[in-house]
Amino acid sequence: MASQQFEPPSGTRDFLADALRRRERVFTQIREVFARYGFEPLQTPAFERLETLTGKYGDEGDKLIFKILRRGEHEATGEADLALRYDMTVPLARVVATYGSKLPTPYKRYAMGPVWRADRPGKGRFREFAQCDVDVVGSSSPLADAETVCALSDALDAVGVRDFTVLVNSRQALAGLLEVYGVPSDLGGGVLITLDKLDKLPPDKVAAELVDARSLSPGTAEKLVADLTAFDAVERMRGALAGSEAGRAGLDEIDRLLELAAPKVGKDRMAFTPRLVRGLDYYTGVIFEITAEGMPGSIASGGRYDHLIEALGGPDVPACGGSLGVERIIGLLDQTAEDGDRTDVAVTLIAPDTAAEIMGFAARLRDAGLRTEIYLASSRKLAKQLKWAADRRARFALIYGAADREAGVVTVRDMDTGDQSQVPPEELVAHLAGRCAPSS
Amino acid sequence: MASQQFEPPSGTRDFLADALRRRERVFTQIREVFARYGFEPLQTPAFERLETLTGKYGDEGDKLIFKILRRGEHEATGEADLALRYDMTVPLARVVATYGSKLPTPYKRYAMGPVWRADRPGKGRFREFAQCDVDVVGSSSPLADAETVCALSDALDAVGVRDFTVLVNSRQALAGLLEVYGVPSDLGGGVLITLDKLDKLPPDKVAAELVDARSLSPGTAEKLVADLTAFDAVERMRGALAGSEAGRAGLDEIDRLLELAAPKVGKDRMAFTPRLVRGLDYYTGVIFEITAEGMPGSIASGGRYDHLIEALGGPDVPACGGSLGVERIIGLLDQTAEDGDRTDVAVTLIAPDTAAEIMGFAARLRDAGLRTEIYLASSRKLAKQLKWAADRRARFALIYGAADREAGVVTVRDMDTGDQSQVPPEELVAHLAGRCAPSS
Question: Which segments cross the bilayer (chains A, B) (predicted)?
Answer without folding.
Answer: none
